[in-house]
Predict the structure.
Amino acid sequence: MLKRTFALSALVAAMFATPALAQDQDAAAYAQQQMEQMANEPVTDEQLEKFVEAIEHIERINNEFVTALESVETQEAAQELQMNAQREMVESVEDTGLSVEEYNALAYRLQNDPEVQRRVEEMREDEDERY
């Protein structure tokens, strides 16, 4: 399950980063610096609970996107699906009370901080046990 979370976090971070790549390199570098700075701050249980909730929403959106993508016949339609999925993911993250930047910083921490990995894994397992 943790590998799936890593892969999904990387996918989402990449999707959220795409608009930054279209901007100039200074803006992208600033965004990366901000994410790394946020990644060094303490992580509360409340932040992780919101993050886990966002991951669950994003997994659902991603699964719907992958399924819909299988029936797409043109590159334009695939790009439109991706843009819609990205917009839904952003809205889902923001609906949890996290900003995209906070989500990306937590995704970065998830990939680089064993303590955050452990806590997220426990929260996800607890969530699975409830259902």
